[in-house]
Amino acid sequence: MWRADRNQHGGGLIAYVRSDLAADRKIQLEFSDVESIGIEAAIGNKKWFFCGIYKPPSMSDDHFSTDCTKTIDKIISKYDNYIFIGDFNYNMLNCDKSAMIREICDIFNLKNIIKKATCFTKIAKATLLDLILMNHDCDFKKICNFGTGISDVHNFISVHKKLDLLSDNAACYMYHCGHIWLCLQEISKRTGINIQGYYYSEAHAGKSCCDSKMANMRKKMKSWVAS
Fold this sequence. Notes:
Elements: E1 2-7, E2 10-15, E3 23-25, E4 35-43, E5 46-54, H1 61-76, E6 81-87, H2 99-108, E7 111-112, E8 130-134, E9 140-146, E10 156-161, E11 163-168, H3 171-191, E12 195-201, H4 207-226
Parallel strand pairs: 5-6, 11-12
Antiparallel strand pairs: 1-2, 3-4, 4-5, 6-8, 7-8, 9-10
Helix pairs in contact: 1-2
């Protein structure tokens, strides 16, 4: 977990990375004035740069453009794969109001993969302010955009990578493997996630650790239900 706090009054950005992924924060590649947090992560055999962004509505187009151009130039000189995600405060549903971010996307060959409104207020029309900009989307399939109730106006947005399925190779699971193989295409179709492969782990690999944690969780859940 990494934090980029705004000030003592609150605000800022936070990034979480799964514990089994090699990742590190790259402060030297973050924006100078736009709120941002930059993370390098190794996914499979590729190195990715993820940048969370918040552009204040008060920031001028010229100021934003200058900061973007300077920072993205540095990023693309070091990485072949990069994603910018966050609240850009440019309504992509309005061509005139989003001219600046569209120009930046054209310059750096970026594509916004969020197509529907993400911000909903009672006093204005729905807008598309929260974007995921990437230089190519061949490794990513499932795109999410939905309200969670956490924010009063903004939706949750995400994109999922292609994945491999892994299952225990214990004898008790072998009876079901044929059914799983037959259903892989349907699972991909229903979820929108491209399943690349299906592999077996060693029988019960890591199971003792999981069983230990689950036993403790079951005990706490039973206590909570009984209370």
